[in-house]
Specification:
By secondary structure, this protein is an all-alpha fold. Helix content is 70%, strand content 0%. It has one helix at 15-73.
């Protein structure tokens, strides 16, 4: 004969204990996602800062070339607003 376990003899965790544990896992997951997003944002902003460095040097070179062209076009005289 197969015995059926009685509800009183069930050894599983009662539902009242499962809810705080589930809330704890949900909070830990939320904190982990926030930390992951902060790390990803920091990484993206660092790469953006590096890309500005790559663009800054060519801009300076182009400004120098513009000043040289303005000086040559003016017959050696400086055009207003340019510095060599």
């Amino acid at each position: 004969m197969v015995e059926r376990p009685d509800i009183a003899s069930d050894r599983r965790t009662p539902p009242s204990r499962k809810r705080p544990l589930l809330a704890l896992f949900a909070a830990a997951g939320a904190v982990a996602l926030v930390l992951l997003s902060v790390f990803a944002l920091n990484l993206g902003l660092g790469r953006l800062k590096d890309s500005f460095g790559w663009v800054e040097h060519p801009d300076e070179v182009l400004l120098q070339l513009t000043r040289i062209e303005a000086t040559l076009a003016g017959g050696g005289r400086r055009c207003p607003g340019t510095r060599v």
